[in-house]
């Protein structure tokens, strides 16, 4: 360097955008291994997404043409005669593309649908959520904010993990024996909701606890430094910060409960009219149960109704999840 050279960088040198350090520092064998790992992760994601897309696409293609307003509000056919659908040609061919009928002849008969199953699904799943979600979040608050690593907290975590792996049919048998056989209650939407709540509870507890762990301790310390008690810090600071994760965990539990069949078969009974499906004390039905019934009954009409019920169930879960995430996002923004 000569005496006339200025060691400081020029303006043009300072304005040069630096290259990505992650790329510029990975060379040779490390670069190849990094590229191979990246390709492997992308391939694993694609392989995992293909079955999901195939299932959703299949349900949409076969179920969407069946779902109409009448399908969502009409009563369920309750005998084998329902396999032979009477009605206008457009409706008949929607269920049975091979059917032959006169386009000019229209028979005034209500289209069979899944109205009672839609109502029963909303009632049982909603009641199960009311029972499981508040209790699960309260349990998670105790485990993360108060219990921490005490013996009771470790025991609750262990039993929660055990309950997560219990087959759903076991929960159905448990509620059937306890609520119906021992206490003498009849099959009802309330009994089904109790079985579904038992399935939802461990999912809500574990997912909520993990979301609470993600809240930085600095927020708790700052609140404590201002003189807030633990319960107020949890209510005003921790829960709002973890709300999106709590909603996601709760919706995951709701989605599992809405799709369960085995515990509901033992506890809910069967109704075929919309007016009878909204009661908690009487027998009801759900979409998952009707999908099982329609597939096992056979006939030309039943499979199409089962596909329509499957599409309706997926749509209900999607709508509930979207609403819950939207509400929680607005709450956090405020």
Shape assignment: globular
> Structural class from helices and strands?
mainly alpha
The portion of residues assigned to helices is 55-70%
DSSP strand count: 0
Label the CATH architecture of one domain: Orthogonal Bundle
- CATH homology-level superfamily of one domain: MetI-like
Strand content: under 5%
Order of helices and strands: HHHHHHHHHHHHHH
Major β-sheet profile: none
- CATH fold topology of one domain: MetI-like fold
CATH hierarchy, class of one domain = Mainly Alpha
Uncertain regions: pLDDT < 50 for 5+ in a row? 80-84, 104-110
State Rg: 28 Å
Mean pLDDT: 83
Number of continuous helical runs: 14
Gap between N and C termini: 59 Å
Task: Write structural notes for this entry.
- The structure is a single chain.
- The chain has 334 residues and is mainly α.
- The protein has a domain at 115-333: MetI-like (MetI-like fold, Orthogonal Bundle), CATH 1.10.3720.10.
- 70% of the residues lie in helices and 0% in strands.
- It is built from 14 helices and no strands.
- The chain has helices at 11-15, 21-24, 28-63, 69-73, 89-95, 115-147, 151-164, 168-182, 189-213, 217-225, 230-259, 262-267, 287-297, 301-333.
- The chain starts with 10 loop residues before the first helix and ends with a helix.
- Residues 80-84 and 104-110 have low confidence and may be disordered.
